[in-house]
Design brief:
- The structure holds two protein chains of two kinds.
- Helices cover 21% and strands 29% of the residues of chain A.
- Chain A has helices at 41-49, 64-70, 103-108, 111-116, 135-145, 199-210, 219-229, 249-258, 389-398; strands at residues 6-11, 32-33, 37-38, 54-58, 84-88, 92-93, 96-97, 121-126, 129-131, 149-155, 165-169, 175-180, 189-198, 234-238, 243-245, 285-287, 293-294, 296-298, 303-304, 307-309, 312-313, 318-319, 324-330, 335-336, 341-347, 352-353, 358-359, 367-369, 374-375, 380-381, 386-387.
- The longest helix of chain A has 12 residues, at 199-210.
- Chain A starts with 5 loop residues before the first strand and ends with a helix.
- In chain B, the strands form six sheets. In chain B, strands 1, 4, 5, 6, 8, 9, 10, 11 and 12 form a nine-stranded mixed β-sheet that branches.
- Classes of the chains: A alpha/beta, B alpha/beta.
- The A-B interface holds A 34-36, 74-75, 262, 268-269, 274-277, 279-291, 293-300, 303, 308, 312-313 and B 32-35, 72, 258-259, 261, 264, 268, 273-276, 278, 280-288, 290-300, 303, 307, 311-313.
Chain lengths: 399, 374
């Protein structure tokens, strides 16, 4: 394999338990977003648009759907003879072999993969954010500074700062202090979880960290503080633009709703920085007579006969006559029958809302109907409730 | 794997869709909101399990080549995969085919080199969504030399007559008569212009035909052999939707027919998706104040105005106050504020400026060429 200047390692192994029923069966990066994407489309498209063509995807939790989705990598032009996207699950080595323990350990276990490409730099990404970013610009900044580690940051409002991992820098953006969710923040530069390491330094510190049995093998908790303490050259790179953590039901819903305002806070119609996705191959969507449509996104394969107001419809959704969908995210293949009302809710893949049912409320938390779950005729799903298809089946067989 | 190959002949000289085909083959015509005509023939072959597909092209085939690319979207990019067969010049071959037989003769090497026992031969202007497996089984069981596909339903969408072929068949499916371009045909079996035969027999027929200076596959080979009884020609009835795109009116009517649920669902069954080149547009956006009724809309559209009984391809913009009725609008076209159109076919990237009006009679849709600004 020929040498690469920079390879990307995408941490996709976490469960994302705060997404509740949506990540019960799939890893977080495989969760649908924005009418036709999945979360992982954003870092993968950013890589290919930035000219980074080796991407290792570290999977561990429920990888089947994610693996099938990534496939050969062709939707992102990452099916290459020299490079491409590689799914990297944990594996056995001789008598040992273990699960990925922490973020740093996951990459440590794949040193052999990285060394194949003999890279100068390694880009570390996570699969939980919606953003468009030129990693190559960040890499240039890293090289110019002669940095050992560059951490992408965004400046957050001071009142929110204490929710983030914060980096305090000098006037040259050199990091002198790192604080994880402090009560009294000294900085408002929040880490985005996007790192560029100079590979020989990264390797050295990962090996050193592995040798410490007390370490949690985590970048934020162990590697970065150690590098700081040893006076390595750590810099921030400020990213401006839309960036949203979609790690919770509320933030996932909000981020979908963000796409409905004009101009879009994140331009998904930008032809110079397309976000690629695997295509389900459906015909254009059909809008029936007398349908009210307000500020919504509708994808190919839908059949729309009811009101769609401030909502995002994924491929192949069917909304029958007299149904009302308001401020909702309806994922692929879901069916909303006649007269059903869905508001402030996420209806997951292939869920079925029967006639006259009501899902969600005008205020309160977002209601979620899980993948394949059924809301019976006339039933009511209150705000913040999550409907689980497995529990439904168990309850049905108990009867 | 099935022991069958596919051969699609595009660039028929006798099909004219005016301005719409001045720069492209009928096979490359945008259709049904996000497809090209050839997607239907290609996808049908893929759903049959055919891996080796040759596409014979001529004249302006660059937009066709751009569309099919490596065949990846049809899963035809493998070791066998899809081959584009462009015209070439030799002493015997002027690169302009005067009939399907000519086109086949020029590409006879492809037939010779292929390894499969059977071949499915199609034109590129008939729309259908077929798994040819049943027809292949019929062909083998009947011991036929050639099996022609036909349909009896009224959904054949032909308007011209001069290209239409009709058969009569007996109760076993044996073809008794064949009429081409008759204004009052005796037969009620309309040809889909899909033929199944053995590869070596086709090779032989093409060789013989060329040696005798013949050009037309239907007249000079099929009809002649049916009349003389030299070949066992059988007909296989297809009961789904088939539509010939052979005039502007039939193109228009086909697109409009897609607004009917039954028609659309028959043509796009979930078990046999129609594959096409992917464009990576975002979902369509409907802005408050817009109105959309009985229409098909592809990804990437932005709708602020009114859309009634229309087909919108990818990336079309309908501005505030604009009214679009009974129209087909191809990709990236832009209808500006206050403009009004009715019964129009707008080719790619065309623009109807502010307050422009284009109202055509239902029987004669207006065609606006690619990149034209009005």
């Amino acid at each position: 394999m020929r040498k690469k200047k920079c390879v990307a390692m995408l941490l996709a192994g976490g469960q994302g338990s705060r997404l509740g029923i949506l990540t019960k069966k799939v890893a977080k990066p495989a969760v649908p977003f924005g009418g036709k994407f999945r979360i992982i489309d954003f870092p993968l498209s950013n890589c290919t648009n930035s000219g980074i063509d080796v991407v290792g995807v570290l999977t561990q939790y429920r990888p089947l759907e994610l693996n099938a989705y990534i496939g050969s990598g062709s939707p992102w032009d990452l099916d290459l003879s020299n490079g491409g996207v590689f799914v990297l699950p944990p594996y056995q080595t001789g008598k040992t072999g273990e699960w990925y323990k922490g973020t740093a350990n996951a990459i440590y276990q794949n040193i052999a993969f990285i060394e194949q490409w003999d890279p100068d730099y390694v880009l570390v990404l996570s699969g939980d954010h919606i953003y468009k970013m030129d990693y190559n610009a960040m890499l240039r900044a890293h090289i110019e500074k002669g940095a050992d580690l560059t951490i992408a940051v965004r400046e957050v409002p001071w009142e929110d700062a204490s929710r983030f991992g914060l980096l305090h820098t000098d006037e040259n953006n050199r990091i002198d202090e790192f604080e994880e969710k402090p009560k009294h923040p000294k900085s408002n530069k929040a880490s985005m979880g996007v790192y560029i390491f100079t590979w020989d330094k990264m390797r050295k510190y990962m090996e050193q960290d592995e040798a410490d049995p007390k370490s949690e093998n985590d970048f934020g908790k162990n590697i970065i503080p150690t590098m700081l303490a040893e006076n390595q050259k750590l810099y921030t790179y400020t990213f401006e633009g839309y960036w949203k953590d979609v790690g919770t039901i509320e933030s996932l819903w909000e981020s979908n709703m963000d796409l409905l305002t004009l101009p879009m806070p994140i331009d998904l119609a930008d032809k110079r920085w397309r976000i690629y996705a695997r295509n389900p191959g459906m015909p254009p969507h059909y809008i029936d007579q007398g349908v009210k449509l307000v500020d919504s996104l509708i994808t190919e394969g839908c059949e729309v006969r009811g009101v769609i107001d401030h909502s995002v419809l994924f491929a192949g959704v069917r909304v029958e006559t007299g149904a009302e969908v308001t401020q909702a995210v309806i994922m692929p293949g879901a069916i909303i029958e006649r007269g059903a009302v869905v508001r402030r809710a996420i209806v997951a893949e292939n869920a079925h809302i029967c006639a006259g049912a009501i899902v969600g409320e005008e205020t309160g938390n977002i209601a979620v109907v899980g993948p394949g779950a059924v809301v019976g005729p006339g039933e009511h799903v209150a705000a913040g409730v999550q409907i689980d298809a497995d529990e439904q089946r168990a309850a049905a067989s108990a009867k | 794997m099935k022991d069958v190959m596919g051969l699609i002949v595009t660039g028929e000289n006798d099909i004219h869709l005016g301005e719409l085909t001045s720069q492209r083959a009928v096979a490359a015509m945008p259709i049904a909101g996000r497809y090209r005509v050839i997607d239907f023939q290609l996808s049908s072959m893929v759903h049959t399990g055919i891996k080796n597909v040759g596409i014979i092209t001529q004249k302006n085939y660059s937009s066709l080549m751009d569309h099919v690319g490596s065949g990846r979207e049809w899963d035809l990019h493998g070791k066998q995969g899809m081959v584009i067969l462009p015209p070439f010049l030799t002493r015997e071959n002027m690169g302009v085919y005067s009939g399907m037989l000519d086109a086949l003769r020029s590409n006879v090497n492809f037939l010779r080199r292929s390894k499969q026992e059977y071949v499915v031969l199609t034109n590129s202007h008939t729309i259908y969504n077929i798994d040819f497996s049943d027809a292949l089984r019929f062909h083998v069981n009947a011991g036929a030399d050639v099996t022609v596909l036909y349909c009896r339903n009224e959904h054949t969408g032909t308007t011209q007559g001069e290209n239409d072929t009709f058969y009569t068949v007996d109760e076993n499916g044996k073809v008794l008569t064949m009429e081409i371009g008759s204004s009052n045909p005796k037969g009620d079996c309309a040809s889909l212009k899909v033929y199944i035969t053995r590869r070596e027999l086709l090779h032989q027929l093409v060789d013989q035909g060329a040696a005798s200076g013949l050009h037309d596959f239907e007249r000079d080979i099929l009809q002649k052999n049916i009349n003389e009884g030299n070949l066992k020609v059988y007909g296989f009835e297809y009961t789904g939707i088939a539509w010939q795109i052979d005039s502007i009116q039939s193109y228009f009517n086909f697109n409009m027919a897609l607004l009917q649920n039954d028609f659309r669902n028959q043509l796009f069954p979930s078990e046999r998706p129609v594959y096409t080149k992917v464009r990576d547009d975002m979902p369509a956006r409907y802005v408050a104040g817009c109105e959309c009724t009985n229409s098909l809309v592809a990804n990437g559209c932005t709708i602020e105005g009114t859309v009634i009984n229309s087909i919108l391809f990818r990336g079309v913009r309908i501005a505030k106050g604009a009214v679009v009725k009974n129209s087909i609008i191809m990709q990236d076209a832009h209808i500006q504020e206050g403009a009004e159109i009715d019964h129009c076919i707008l080719d790619k990237q065309s623009v109807i400026r502010r307050n422009g009006r284009l109202i055509a009679p239902a029987a004669y849709p207006i065609v606006i060429a690619k990149n034209v600004v009005i």
